[in-house]
Specification:
Elements lengths: L4 E5 L6 H7 L3 E5 L14 H15 L3 E5 L4 E7 L5 E7 L11 H17 L6 E3 L7 H4 L4 H18 L4 E3 L9 H9 L9 E5 L9 H15 L3 E6 L35 H17 L4 E6 L33 H28 L1
Parallel strand pairs: 1-2, 1-10, 2-3, 3-6, 6-7, 8-9, 9-10
Antiparallel strand pairs: 4-5
Bound molecules: zinc ion.
Zinc ion binds next to loops.
Length: 356
């Protein structure tokens, strides 16, 4: 049985010794658009920095899942009335073509084929772009266009490295994620190797660990391939929105409160309880999993969606705090991971003895 992938998102400044002490073996690393002026042309500084960081992670004993360049990226900025409005910026240059066009998708395929070559020996597990079922990351791409874009990325990676492991991670909080699963696993063959999924039960959407239980069973049945939980977590800070407090078209960053909560609430102890119960669920479903990646290793100074330091939406997801000190969830995480690894070890020992 292949070993499960246990990973997290982490900043460059993270304490790798502490990450490894937690039992985490993998990090997820974003890769910027590599080319400045044409496919095969001058490399961008951002990509060169990303590549150096990949080499640094690996040099420190971690494995890296690469994230291919994002087509779009969004954030919120206040209008004249102070209402936060979504601004989505194009991440692939104009010379790649019009989003959704054949030329655009072909450019992306070539970029991904090149990335797999450039990072050969460093990265063989991939997440293609990020959460293309939501406008924040898909911009103007429709769900169908986003699936075609992902398919081209997968073909590019596979063309260079047929043994690479590729997939995509729908956010799951909009109406389109099941469309993605139908598109990719409803008879188009083995274009993607795993079923990726992100989930923020008890924070961005209602639910809790029991929702992961339902979702993992459902996805295994729908897709028939191993599931990679590309993102999961629970924020340790923030109050819950009161009913009607925020119009449906506004972002929670507007009032800095969560659409949902769970169990003991958004506190360090609540986060630890959430982590503990989710590991019970992951343990139960471990035979259906490729792995789980936590969002995220450390707390953040500012919310990347709205830029504010006092916004809990993107600042308190860490297993360690802003000073790098473990929060209660760190211990829960370490114990949960140890139980998963012990179960894997026991299964592989049993398999070996039965094979004799
Ligand atoms: Zn915010």
């Amino acid at each position: 049985m292949a070993k499960l992938l246990f990973g997290a998102c982490a900043n460059e400044s993270a304490d790798v010794g502490l990450i490894r002490k937690t039992g985490i073996d993998w990090v997820r690393q974003d890769l910027a658009m590599p080319f400045a002026d044409r496919v095969g042309g001058r490399l961008t500084d951002e990509y060169l920095r990303n590549r150096a960081l990949v080499q640094s992670w690996i040099g420190q004993g971690l494995k890296v899942m690469g994230v291919t360049p994002r087509p779009f990226g969004g954030s919120y900025e206040p209008d004249e009335q102070g209402v936060l409005r979504l601004r989505v910026k194009r991440c692939l240059p104009e010379w790649c073509g019009a989003p959704g066009s054949e030329a655009y998708n072909r450019s992306y395929e070539e970029i991904c084929a090149w990335l797999a070559q450039d990072l050969k020996g460093l990265i063989s597990t991939w997440q293609i772009a990020n959460e293309l079922d939501i406008e924040l990351f898909a911009g103007p791409l429709t769900a169908r266009q986003a699936c075609e874009f992902i398919a081209h990325g997968a073909r590019g990676l596979k063309r260079t490295d047929a043994s690479s492991v590729v997939g995509h991670n729908p956010a799951g909080c909009g109406p389109h994620s099941d469309y993605f699963y139908g598109w990719f696993y409803g008879g188009r063959g083995a274009l993607l190797d795993y079923c990726g999924v992100d989930g923020y039960y008890g924070t961005w959407i209602d639910g809790g660990p029991e929702s992961w239980d339902r979702r993992l069973a459902e996805l295994r049945e729908l897709t028939g391939v191993p599931i990679l939980v590309n993102e999961w977590g629970f924020s340790s800070e923030g109050a819950q929105l009161a009913p009607g407090e925020l119009p449906a078209d506004r972002t929670p960053c507007q009032v800095r409160k969560w659409p949902s909560t769970w169990g003991p609430g958004h506190t360090p102890e609540g986060q630890a309880a959430f982590v503990r119960e989710c590991f019970d669920v992951f343990l139960k479903h471990r035979r259906s999993l490729l792995g789980v990646f936590f969002y995220r290793w450390e707390d953040q100074q500012n919310c990347w969606q709205c830029g504010r330091a006092d916004c809990p939406m993107e600042t308190r997801w860490g297993l360690v705090d802003l000073d790098g000190k473990p929060k209660p969830a760190w211990t829960a995480y370490k114990e949960g991971l140890a139980a998963m690894k012990a179960a894997e070890e026991a299964a592989s020992t049993k398999g070996l003895s039965q094979g004799k």
